[in-house]
Design brief:
This protein has 393 residues and is mostly helical. The chain contains 18 helices and no strands.
Length: 393
C-alpha cells in the first residue's frame, strides 16, 4: 500500500506545484493548487483530520472563480469559518461543495462537473468514516488530478497557450527525478525510512517544478548585475513549449492575443509564447534587419510593433491631454509602456517624467479602475486592427 500512497502523493504534489508555478496571481490556480498540496500532505504526514477537508474547501473556491463574482465573495468570507467548523465536524465542507457543483453544472455542464460529482462522493465516504481505505483515498486523488488538469487546460485556453507539451515535459522530468532519488530510499525501505521516502520524492519534484523561481532567488543574491537578463532568458526557454503553433493566424483571436501581448509588454520571456510572434510582418522585419530568426528576436520585434501601434493612437497635439481623444493612448502607453500602476499601493516610482507624473495623478484622481480597464479593452481592439493591417514590406 505504501507504493500507492507514494505514487498518489507524487502526482498530487507535482500538479499542485505546477499549477501555482504557472501564475501565482490567479485565484483559481492558487486554490486548485492548495487542494492538491493539502491532499498530498494528508498522504505523507500524520496531519489532523481537518486537513482532509481542505481539498473540498479549495475545490469549492476554485469552482466559484468560474461563477459570477457574488459566489466568490461568499467563498472568501466563509472559507476560514468553514475550516474551523470542519475541525469539529469534517463533513460540513461537503455542503458548499455540493452547492458550488449545482451552480456550476447549471451554467456550463462540463467535465468539471462530472469530476466534482466523483470527488464529492469520495470525500463524503472519507470524511464520514464509512470506508476509509487507501484505495478510496487514492481514488479521491484521481478526481483531484482530473480537476487540476482541467483547471490547467482552461487557464491555458484563456491565455492562448499550448499546454500539453509543457505539462508532459514537467511530468516526465518530475517522475524521472522522483524515481531516481526516491528509488534509492525505497531499496532499503522500512517503517523508519517512510518519512524520508516522501521527503525525498517531494524535494526532487519541487526542485524541478520550481527551478526557475529558485534560480531567480539565487541570481539576485549571487549575480545581481545580470539577474534580470538571466531571468528573461529562462522565461523565454520556459515559454517555448507553450507557443500555440497549431492554430493558424486566420483562426487566431487577434484581439485576445493583442490584449495578452500588451499585458506582457515589459516581459520578453512571456511575449515569446504569444502567437502574434508568427505574424508575417515580423518575418519581413527580421529579414530586413538581417538578424537570426530566434524566439527572443521575434518577441522584441512584436514589442516594437505594439509600441508603434500605441503611438499611432496619440493625438497630434504634443504634451499630455485628458480629453476623450486621449483616453485610448493614455490607457495603453502610460500603463504598459511606462509601467504606471496607479491603483497599486506597492508601486512607487521616482523616475517618472513630467507627463507621466501628470498621467499618474489623473488616473488616481479621476479615472476609476473599471473605467481604465474598459478603455484598455477598447484600445486593444484598435491596436489589433492596426496589427492586422500591417503587411510585410
Amino acid at each position: 500500500m505504501i507504493g500507492v500512497s507514494v505514487v498518489a502523493f507524487g502526482l498530487a504534489w507535482w500538479l499542485g506545484l505546477y499549477l501555482v508555478a504557472r501564475n501565482p496571481g490567479k485565484p483559481v490556480l492558487r486554490r486548485a493548487s492548495a487542494g492538491l498540496l493539502a491532499y498530498a500532505a494528508a498522504l505523507a504526514l500524520p496531519v489532523p483530520p481537518v486537513v482532509l477537508a481542505v481539498p473540498a474547501v479549495a475545490w469549492t473556491g476554485a469552482i466559484t472563480c468560474l461563477l459570477p463574482e457574488r459566489h466568490d465573495r461568499w467563498w472568501r468570507w466563509s472559507a476560514v469559518p468553514l475550516l474551523v467548523a470542519a475541525w469539529f465536524a469534517p463533513p460540513v465542507v461537503l455542503v458548499p461543495l455540493a452547492l458550488a457543483l449545482f451552480a456550476h453544472v447549471r451554467r456550463t455542464r462540463t467535465l468539471l462537473g462530472a469530476a466534482t460529482v466523483l470527488f464529492l462522493l469520495g470525500s463524503a465516504l472519507v470524511l464520514t468514516g464509512i470506508t476509509p481505505s487507501v484505495w478510496l483515498v487514492a481514488a479521491i486523488g484521481v478526481d483531484l488530478l482530473v480537476f487540476g488538469v482541467l483547471v490547467a487546460l482552461r487557464d491555458a485556453f484563456d491565455e492562448g497557450e499550448e499546454i500539453r507539451a509543457d505539462m508532459a515535459r514537467s511530468a516526465l522530468v518530475s517522475v524521472g527525478l522522483a524515481a531516481v532519488f526516491g528509488g534509492q530510499v525505497a531499496l532499503f525501505l522500512d517503517d523508519r525510512l517512510t518519512p524520508l521516502l516522501f521527503g525525498t520524492v517531494a524535494a526532487a519534484i519541487a526542485l524541478q517544478v520550481l527551478a526557475n523561481p529558485l534560480a531567480a532567488v539565487v541570481d539576485r543574491v549571487a549575480v545581481p548585475d545580470v539577474a534580470a537578463q538571466r531571468a528573461e532568458l529562462r522565461d523565454a526557454v520556459e515559454a517555448l513549449p507553450k507557443l500555440d503553433q497549431r492554430t493558424s493566424l486566420e483562426e487566431l483571436d487577434l484581439v485576445k492575443s493583442t490584449r495578452r501581448a500588451l499585458s506582457s509588454y515589459g516581459d520578453l520571456g512571456k511575449l515569446v509564447a504569444n502567437p502574434l510572434t508568427r505574424l508575417p510582418v515580423i518575418d519581413a522585419r527580421l529579414a530586413a534587419r538581417g538578424v537570426p530568426d530566434q524566439p527572443l528576436e521575434r518577441a522584441a520585434e512584436l514589442k516594437s510593433l505594439l509600441l508603434e501601434s500605441i503611438l499611432r493612437l496619440k493625438p497630434r497635439e504634443g504634451g499630455f491631454g485628458t480629453s476623450d481623444e486621449w483616453r485610448h493612448y493614455n490607457a495603453l502607453y502610460f500603463y504598459y509602456v511606462v509601467g504606471i500602476r496607479p491603483y497599486s499601493r506597492r508601486t512607487k516610482r521616482e523616475d517618472l517624467d513630467a507627463d507621466s507624473r501628470k498621467a499618474l495623478a489623473w488616473f488616481v484622481n479621476q479615472v476609476p479602475e473599471r473605467t481604465l480597464h474598459n478603455w484598455q479593452n477598447a484600445a486593444a481592439k484598435l491596436v489589433a486592427a492596426d496589427l492586422s493591417a500591417r503587411v510585410p514590406d
